[in-house]
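Side project, low priority. Logging it here so it doesn't get lost.
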Amino acid sequence: MDPASWRVAVCVAASLMTGVLLAVGSRAMDAAAGRTLHTGLMFWLCTVAGLALGYVAAALACRRRRIRGGGMLSLLFLALAASVIVQGTCTPRLVVSWQTVLNAMTRRETQYVSLLFRTGLLYAGVSALAVGALARVALQMFRQEAPDVRPGTAITLGVLLVLLPAGVGFGIGEGTLIPWLGFGLLRGAALWFGVLASLVLARGVWSMLPVLAVGLALFGVGPTELDAALAAGVFSRLVHRDSGFARGQPVFVRQTRHHAVAAYEDSDYGFVFAQDGRPVLFGNRFHTARTLTAYVPLLLHPSCARAALFGPEAGLYLPFLARAGVKELAVGGCDAALLKLALAADEHLAGAPVDVTRVLRQRARLAASQAYDLIVLAGEPMWMRGTGKAYGAGLFARCRSALAPGGLVALHVDGRALSARRFAAVTRDFARVFPNMQLWCTGAYDWLLVGSNGMIQSPADQMLACFERQPVMRDFARAGVLALPEALACMVCDGAGVVPWLERTGFESGCANAGRVPRVVFGTGAPEGLLTPHALEPVRQKTLEWLLPGEMDVGVYQAIRDKTLLCADARTLSARALAQTAAGQGEAGLADARAAAKLNVRDPLLTRLAESLELEGRRRIAIGEFKGGLKCYENLLSFSPGSAHSHYGMGFCLRASGDNETAYLHFARAVAAAPGQIGYRMELAQVAAAIGEYAEADRQYEEILRREPEHAEALYRYATCLSTKQRKDRDMVRSLALAEQACRVTAWQNREFAYGLANLYMDAGRVLEGMGLKRRLNEGGSPEAVRPPAGRVEP
């Protein structure tokens, strides 16, 4: 190969990998700092500034020097490889800095700007500096070899050899390499530039030095878990801080074509599924909003047979439609890998697999020939960059054209960091396309706009039949909704009813809303102008004209209407309770919550408030603040019947405060609500023994050992309970047998059990055996079990 062709090949190879590096840097910055408008601007600002500074610095350095050979290019390629290695090594520290902000009690916008600049400098600025210098040196070498070339020819060559390969590399990196290799691709990029440094050096054996240096540097740095570190998505968790999920080690991390997915095992939630850092699925709480969002359109259109879901969050709602019996399902606008992972997460939670073979083969399309009965738009939150078209009138019009007569379009809107004015603008655009629309509030941060090409009129008999399907009822029960009126009360108003609120609120563009997101997340004090359920309560309609009886008995139909109106009154009080709690008026909020609970204790907003309080109580117990935890559980149980979790937490705090009698009652309620929980029975048994209820303690220990005969903790605690001196039926023989079994189960590795057995020997009058066992334990020897006496031993 002649030298000119060789240089062209090196230029194209460098441009390709530079494009890949841009794709990796952009994805990494979005993962760390959130995919916001500010992140994109900072990334490209640092990129352009780095290119310009590198170009100018190289121009000044080489202004009066003729570049000979490839030594200068080799050094710059090495510098580029070093910058890539620095990205990998500094990423964990950068994530820790973001995590510090997440866990801080106070935050400032200046912290955000500083962290964002450092992130842009790491993922864009440093590498761009080396690329800019490379471009200037390569241009000067080209001018030296072809001084008479025309400017137009130089520009054409630059487009063909630099910009076009870089664009191709960006596309390949974004669509193929990142999903395949993840952020480990950075190590490959560093090695790639090391190889190019060796190729341009062209000094025989010495040409191997650059690539060897890069290889040694990568070996010295060692493996870096960049995917796990960047899965934290700290900014996204700040926006979703209402969930309380702050940190954790992922058990699974995957990069899809456009998104990052992570799964966590967590003691507070059981299981957490995060998409782009946003926790969207939880194992043991926060199911209500997602369940209602999925099933409300089906309740309005119970005869739905053909449905399509569009958007990156389609996988969160697809399983509900499948379990409800919708025969034809299609998905569009969602990565296939992301869809499979979301369905796997739902199967892990619900225990009901969903066959997606046909769904993956048939992609949804918005065309008039499709004639869908239901279209669900499950886009990402509006604070994320690139979501503008998902909430535009153009998409709404295309959806209307793809509906069958009487079909529905359901648009889910995430209300986190969303201004009321921006939501009003989206609602206005939706109402213009669908004059016959309804507005539903399915959660504290979840809204549903439902539109139809005809009148929305739902027969109550078919609606009730859909609600009572066994899989559907199971989903609703998991979400805490046990009756149809509790779901119907989430309806706020129709298109005509929302007009006064739109006129009063005003409108705002998507860019304006996205621009204030950092101020909402990092600003001090309660942000103003955000969308809340309480803001729309003044326009709530209670006519229920859209609910038809169908073939339902008139008495049953009237009972459903009356109960729905009662639940709607509870919803008004619940919305006000949330607003007062957010404003710092805790006592007033609790008073409204108690009043709402008298009307409907299972209101979705009350359920959300109860879950948040229970979670806060668990957190306070974890840090040893039992008085604060006790206050959380007292507030929770003042308006909620409480779950097994809440009664257990209340009992735990009471026991830590010394109130064993009241703790005994709450532990008993926890066991009654969740009889399969061994931990609850253990606490009940121990507190029962503490207050002298030995018969109850024995029953609990016997039940635990019936379920788990080798439960070492239960064996030892039961032994100490049987040996209590205050017992009239003290049984030292069985106590010793149980304690010895506990030591055998733990292979004598548990020092508490072993020393406890020695004390029991001494209490039983077998002093020599007890002292001998303690001596062997103190000497570090291997103690042996002593054969128990044949008869009962009295102290």
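Brief comment: Residues 712-795 form one domain.
Revisit when time allows.
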